[in-house]
């Protein structure tokens, strides 16, 4: 997007099809990211209108993983780790530190797969 200056991801969970089955919306949002050479990192802005949340974070490669770090809504450090990355899938883990980054507690994780649709809704 923006002539190659930024990347946008769209999160729709559950799918529109699953919503028709009665599942409630858990997370519909969008991530905007762009590389900042002064930081040698990616600035990320995650927007979740369903949950009324905006998060600003920084992402960097760590070996074969990508670590995204910033504060949660309580101001505590969080770390999202994207691992097992392929062209069609990745594993995502969400950690929080409640003791100033001495220890990290896993809050949630998921395995994501790219889904393409022939029909745009």
In words, what does this structure look like?
With 121 residues, this protein is mostly beta strands. It has one domain: Lipocalin (Beta Barrel), CATH 2.40.128. An eight-stranded antiparallel β-sheet has the order 1-2-3-4-5-6-7-8, with no helix packed on it. The relative contact order is 0.11.
What is this entry, summarized?
With 121 residues, the protein is mainly β.
Topology:
Elements: E1 7-13, H1 16-20, E2 27-36, E3 41-48, E4 53-62, E5 65-71, E6 77-83, E7 89-96, E8 105-113
Antiparallel strand pairs: 1-2, 2-3, 3-4, 4-5, 5-6, 6-7, 7-8
The helix-and-strand class reads mainly beta
β-sheet strand percentage: over 45%
Number of domains: 1
Which segments are poorly predicted (pLDDT under 50) over 5 or more consecutive residues? none
Number of strands: 8
Percent of residues in helices comes to: under 10%
Terminal-residue CA separation: 20 Å
Shape: globular
* CATH class category: Mainly Beta
Biggest beta sheet summary: 8 strands, antiparallel
- Widest β-sheet, arrangement of strands: 1-2-3-4-5-6-7-8
Feature tags:
4% helix; Lipocalin; 121 residues
